[in-house]
Amino acid sequence: MATGSRVGLLMKKVGSTAVFGDAGARVPVTLLLLEDTFVVDVKSRDVHGYNAVVLGVRRPGRLNKPQVCALRKKGVDVDCHLFESRVDTVDGVELGGKVLVDHFFRGQFVDVAGRSIGRGFAGVMKRHNFGGLHASHGVSISHRSQGSTGQCQDPGRVFKGKKMAGHMGHTMSVMQNLKVVLVDSERSLLVVEGTNVPGPCGSYVLVRDAVKKPVPREGRIVATESSVGAAG
After folding, report:
1. What is the mean pLDDT of residues 207-231?
2. Rounded CA gap, 181 and 110, in Å?
3. What is the pTM for the complete model shown?
4. Contact, 17 vs 48, CB < 8 A?
5. What number is the average pLDDT over the span 22-34?
6. What distances in angstroms separate CA 110 from CA 78, 90, 199, 213, one per listed residue?
7. Confidence at residue 1, expressed as pLDDT on a 0 to 100 scale
8. What would be the CATH architecture of the domain defined by 35-99?
C-alpha cells in the first residue's frame, strides 16, 4: 500500500535494454508496462477514516463474487486485481476513469517495490558470501560448508539470527530513487534508469513517487483520461 500525496501504480516488468542520453552516454534502463488500470473506488476520511484511491488492474479471475457485486453497485464492471494508495486528499478523483502512464514525469525519481527473484534453498557461500573451507589439507567433501556454528558449553546454543544456509530470495524489496528516463504514452511504457528493479520479467511492481526526492512539478493525484483532457 502506497502512502503520499499521489497514488502509486501497479506496473508489469517487461524487460531491460539500453538507451543513449543527450551526451551520447549509454544508459541501462528497465521497461515497465502500465496495463488497463481504472479507478474503482475512492475512500474519504469522513467515511472510512482515511483518504485513499482504490485502483484495479484488468486481470481476469482475480475477484470473488462479493467483490464483483460491490464493484457493479458502484458502476464499475471490470474483473481486475485491486490495490489502494493512501493520499492526502481525494479531491478531483473521478470514479471509473482509466489511469494513464502520464501520471509520472520525465526526470522525476520513483521508488519501485516488488518481490525479488526466488533462488530456492541456497548455501552460505551463495546466500551470505562466505569464503568456504580450505580446498585441501584434510578438508573432505565439505569445501562449501559453513563450519562451526556454536560456542562452548556456555552459552551452549546457537544465537538467533546466525547466518546459515536457507531459503534465498522471493522477499519484498524496494529500490529507491530510480530516475524516469522516458514516458511513452502510446505504448503505456515507463522507462526507468537502471536494471535493478526487483522481480523477474512478467512480475508486477508498485511504482510511486520517491520519498527522498521531490516531484519536479505539481502533479495530479492520479492522471486519468478525463483529467488529462480537461487539463489540455
Report:
1. 73
2. 11
3. 0.83
4. no
5. 92
6. 28, 21, 16, 8
7. 46
8. 2-Layer Sandwich (3.30)
